[in-house]
Design brief:
alpha/beta, Rossmann fold, Helicase, Ruva Protein, domain 3, Zinc Finger, Delta Prime, domain 3, 4 domains, two-stranded parallel sheet, 8% strand, Replication-associated recombination protein A, ATP hydrolysis activity, ATP binding, enzyme activator activity
């Protein structure tokens, strides 16, 4: 029986890994481990299909160590004993332990001495937060790395590689994957490369060649094999981006009905990750300090939607969209940080004032570090005038409040009062 395409295309060396360059790119932590042949146990956590198994396989292939895979939920102590015996007989074994968050105490106690000795290099894989779900005894003996959803260009690159690979891929089928089908395959699988490759293989193997011997894969075929409809079938293939844009602009424009319409289109497409990202951006970019409470409630609703999944996720999402659309709006904080970033990127920085510098080391006082710092909590109202910005930026004001709500107006009034008091008192000191 032939293995699925995603299995066959699994990388055998670290430079074949798609994405995750923050971990496996040249000079990054896992690259360095492989380069120095100084592997340590690790826990990889992130969404399904993002490369956890691929990283483990590539590490083993690059270091020439034996590679074994077990599942913490279904494999028992006996299987672990076999791997420990193999490590004793032939050297280090890289063990990918899937669903490591389900490792029970008996198996954990067996593994620990083998991890300590280095006989087994454990690579735990989980979709759960390891800081919450994994036993501290294992967690303390492993480095924890977050594996992130693949970018669309990463998924597209892997698909192209599979289409051109003669030995492991689909090159022998003479596939013509049409552009709109490629876009949907990449988009609909939300960075899950396993789903994308297996959906592609199903499409190819279930489609008859045309008169020219080509297997033509069009948009309807991909929609069927990944079981997700395109948001629109416009010829430019940009429909999903248009709907995402329209959702944010409708909320920004306070049109509840339009916002709910575009939300419904994204829900129908099953695109929960995009909805969550977009509403998180809206909450802070477009609502911001005009209504911090509704921004916080929106994030809570988004977290509830993530836990629930569809179809129930539509309920907290609808609540969030209605509140965000009807809320007062302000992008003042967003504009303020961009103004501050502009200064930094253009070299407008200056030295941190001496009284704000770190003074928690011997000899700091001799360097005048922190000597004249005034601790605000020692003063009435827990505030005292002192300069915080570097000298060359002493009078810079980044935040330009709009006063579009009672909350933002209250912030504005306090900001103006504090700014004026600080200006007046520092002027007197000079």
């Amino acid at each position: 029986m032939q293995q699925p395409l995603a299995y066959r295309m699994r990388p055998t060396k670290i430079d074949e890994i798609v994405g995750q360059q923050h971990l496996v790119g040249p000079g990054k932590i896992i690259w360095r481990m492989v380069e120095a042949k100084m592997l340590s146990s690790m826990i990889l956590y992130g969404p399904p299909g993002t490369g956890k198994t691929s990283i483990a396989s590539a590490i083993a292939g690059s270091t020439k160590y034996a590679f074994r895979m077990l599942n913490a939920a279904t494999d028992g102590k006996k299987e672990l004993q076999q791997i420990a015996l193999e490590a004793k007989m032939s050297g280090t074994v890289v063990l990918l332990l899937d669903e490591i968050h389900r490792l029970d105490k008996t198996k954990q106690d067996f593994l620990l001495p083998h991890l300590e000795s280095g006989a087994i290099v454990l690579i735990g894989a989980t979709t759960e937060n390891p800081y919450i779900t994994i036993n501290p005894a294992i967690r303390s003996r492993a480095q924890i790395f977050e594996v992130k959803p693949l970018a669309e260009h990463d998924v597209e690159s892997a698909i192209q590689r599979a289409l051109m690979d003669d030995e492991r891929g689909l090159a022998s089928f003479n596939v013509n994957l049409q552009p709109e089908a490629m876009r949907q395959l990449v988009y609909a699988t939300n960075g899950d490369l396993r789903s994308a490759l297996n959906g592609l293989e199903l499409a190819v193997k279930s489609t008859q060649p045309n008169a020219d011997g080509q297997v033509v894969i069009d948009l309807p075929i991909i929609e069927e094999t990944v079981q997700r409809k395109a948001l629109t079938a416009d010829k430019d293939g940009d429909g999903h981006y248009d709907v995402i844009s329209a959702l944010q602009k409708s909320i920004r424009g306070s049109d509840v009905d339009a916002a709910l319409h575009y939300l419904a289109r994204l829900i129908e497409a099953g695109d929960l990750p995009t909805i969550m990202r977009r509403l998180s951006v809206v909450a802070y970019e477009d609502i911001g300090v005009a209504n911090p409470a509704v921004a916080a409630r929106a994030i809570t609703a988004i977290q509830a939607a993530e836990r629930l999944g569809f179809p129930e996720a539509r309920i907290p999402l609808a609540n969030a969209v209605v509140e965000l659309a009807l809320s007062p709006k302000s992008n003042s904080a967003y504009l303020a940080i961009d103004a501050a970033l502009s200064d930094v990127r253009n070299g407008q920085t200056g030295d941190v004032p001496d009284h704000l510098k770190d003074a928690h080391y011997k000899g700091a006082e001799k360097l005048n570090r922190g000597v004249e710092y005034l601790y605000p909590h020692d003063y009435q109202g827990d505030w005292v005038a002192q300069q915080y910005l570097p000298d060359r930026l002493a009078n810079r004001q980044y935040w330009q409040a709009k006063g579009n709500s009672k909350v933002e107006t209250a912030y504005l009034e306090r900001y103006q009062k504090l700014h004026q008091s600080q200006h007046d008192q520092l002027k007197k000191k000079k």
